[in-house]
Amino acid sequence: MMPTILISGAGSGIGHQFLTHYSTQPTTTIHALDVSWPETASKSSNSPATIHRHTVDTSSPSSIDALSKALQGQAIDLFIHSAAVRGLVKAQVEKGVQDPKEAETLEVMDKETMSVCLGVNVVGSFLLIRSLLPNLRKSEAKGGARCVIMGSRMGSMAANNVSFPHSASPPVSPSLDFPPLHPPRVTTPLTHTQPQDGGSYAYRASKAGLNALVKSFSIDVPDVIFAVLHPGRVESRMTHVREEGAVDSDEAVEMMVPKIEGLGRGDSGSFFTREGESVPW
Predict the structure, then answer these.
(1) Could you tell me which of 70, 185, 206, 234 has the fewest CB atoms within 10 Å of its CB?
(2) Using only C-alpha atoms, what is the Rg of the chain?
(3) Neighbours of 193 (CB within 10 A)
(4) How far apart are CA 200 and CA 198, in angstroms?
(5) Which of 150, 132, 139, 151 is nearest to 223 (CA)?
């Protein structure tokens, strides 16, 4: 069988690396999506695969509708959705902050950044995935088509744990033989040097929302396999500087491909790391 793969965000970062990986397969047809393409994109491809590039703005319903019409009647065996925005406050980025976390804190987050991030990562993702369901359902791939979403550990509420120092532990009163009904609440001032998660308000909210969408899709569309993959910190254009601990996109994709290729029906509605380990919602 000649598989058909659709990759969003294929013009850069992880999406582009997935495009590079799958384009080495001569019997594969790839539909590559991005909001814009460099003029040299089509000329620079010497790959054995058949590649169709589409200019699609996932924040625009009309752009998604146009894609749906262009793909009408075509089966898609694998959809890798990596189009996303980070949700950094523009004014902070323009100031030249070196740590992206400083551009998404409680103090600086604004309505515009939240709206854009949720609009692209949640609303746009929902509309795009829903529009492709007829194509995914037409797949004759063994076990069904796979819809793989590039998520983030930041979308896991269970993983967003504050690590308080020992001095912040609730004191135990020696005069009580049993715990009080309402133990005294101990608060610790939030500082940027204190080890903690939190912050990243727009991105966390959008990725948590995306997780909720994927889980519902897995229930409402049982004939398609849906999964979220956390690629880890990857060097991409989502941030203006390279984050500490970030790996190159080719390394991340190399780690994720075995998990993607091995996904089965029992994995639908699940959340995994790039190493294939489960992530709590």
Answers:
(1) 185
(2) 21
(3) 5
(4) 7
(5) 139
**Which three-class secondary structure state does DSSP give residue 104?**
coil
Q: How many CB atoms lie within 10 A of CB 172?
A: 8
Is residue 243's pLDDT more than 90?
Answer: no
Helix axis angle for 111-118 and 201-220, nearest 10°, is 20
For the stretch 178-235, pLDDT in tens is 344 444 444 444 444 444 779 999 999 999 999 999 999 999 999 999 999 999 887 6
> What DSSP string describes 183-218?
PPP------TTS------HHHHHHHHHHHHHHHHHH
> pLDDT of 262-281, one tens digit each?
999 999 999 999 999 999 99
Name the H helices within 227-274: 249-261
Q: What is the pLDDT of residues 6-41, one digit of tens each?
A: 999 999 989 999 999 999 999 999 999 999 998 766
Question: First and final CA of the chain: distance in angstroms?
Answer: 35
Average pLDDT, the chain: 85
User: Which of 267, 279, 256 is CA-nearest to residue 160?
Assistant: 279
Displacement of CA 106 from its chain's centroid (Å): 22
Range 86-90, long-range pairs (CB < 8 A, 24+ positions): 86/117, 86/203, 86/238, 86/239, 87/113, 87/114, 87/116, 87/117, 87/121, 87/200, 87/201, 87/202, 87/203, 87/206, 88/113, 88/239, 88/240, 89/113
Neighbours of 239 (CB within 10 A): 18
Q: Hey, what amino acid is at 87?
A: G
